Amino acid sequence: MKWLSDHALERLREAAESPDLSGTRYRLLERLGRGGMGTVYLAEDSALGRRLALKVLHEPDAPPDLAARLVHEARILARLEHPGIVPVHDVGTLADGRVFYTMKYVHGARLDEHVHSVPATSDRLRLFQRICEAVAFAHARGVLHRDLKPENVMVGPFGEVLVMDWGVAKILRAPATREAAAQTVHATGVPALDAEEIPAASTGLPGSFSLLPADTAHGTVLGTPGYMAPEQALGDTQNLDQRADIFALGAILLFLLTGSRPKSGAAANSSAFSVSGVSGGPGTRVPRALQAICSKAMAHSPSGRYSSAQELAADVARYLDGLPVAAYPENLVGRAARLVSRHRVAVLLVAAYLLTRVLLLLVMGR
């Protein structure tokens, strides 16, 4: 008897799980990846003649909460119109009852893969700033991602940076007063999402899906170990705010600087929780100012972190510009070293001039 190879068995399983797109305008091309909630395929839109990504539930008889989460993700993405967030094109239901949505196909690499082709720390920091910009926009619209990590960031062929996989995102409740809402718009220029802006499922989608924060029960742990804030790891879903995403951004920054996942050390419910390994492995030297930025973003207590993604990005921008960062109080020696580094050419010219003068004086004094 001739046994099938593992590769052949895998191809058979993929074929069996492939969705039937008959009755839609889409044609299946290949599987791109499989996640906990659904599978993403490369498909072709026959009406427009373009390629796109199609995300669909794994099985036709998937639990209703998974269908709700997929619709939840699609509707959130549809309202987060930002260059750093992948746009949604369509949402619907297949003949077998599976919910799906289509989105822009990003032909690029995940951040955890792309980072190896970016050796310069300054270039990695600029990538990080782009991630912060997208997350800040979502926060201004009242949306938490809750699963930020390098695997959920794509870098396109033209350098575009996109934050992906919003399947466990949480919508914060709208400001309690009109004054608070007005302050949000004034500070960010972006109105927050409101429950009224997120209607019940429209015709063609099964059931009615609530997108309010109460969808996730208290005590449910959502996220990825190493990138979850301590309060998120404890399942405190009701009290999470944007500072949980700030923690994850700090963990991404740590990964970009050291190439390794953050180590939490003690359990998340321990006051001994701290960022360790921030200085990187052998041969990796992370400037103290950047270590301080990571440590502040990943503080155990939410109150010790940056208050917003904009504030975190601003500290990184100050570092890139050779300015003092808010997370790292400098002493006199550190300030002098930073100024020398920032004005290196001018310092070298002055040093060369002074050295020339000294040499001339020595020659003339003989």
Question: How would you characterize this protein structure?
Answer:
By secondary structure, this protein is an alpha+beta fold. The protein folds into 3 domains: 13-105, Phosphorylase Kinase, domain 1; 107-173 and 212-329, Transferase(Phosphotransferase) domain 1 (Transferase(Phosphotransferase), domain 1); 335-364. Helix content is 38%, strand content 13%. It has 11 helices and 10 strands. The strands form 3 sheets. A 5-stranded antiparallel beta sheet has the order 1-2-3-5-4, with helices on one face. Strand 8 (153-155) and strand 9 (161-163) form a beta hairpin. Helix 4 packs antiparallel against helix 7 and helix 8 (288-297) runs antiparallel to helix 9. The protein is elongated, with a radius of gyration of 25 Å. The termini are far apart. The model is unreliable at 175-188, 194-204, 206-218, 265-277 and 279-283 (pLDDT under 50).
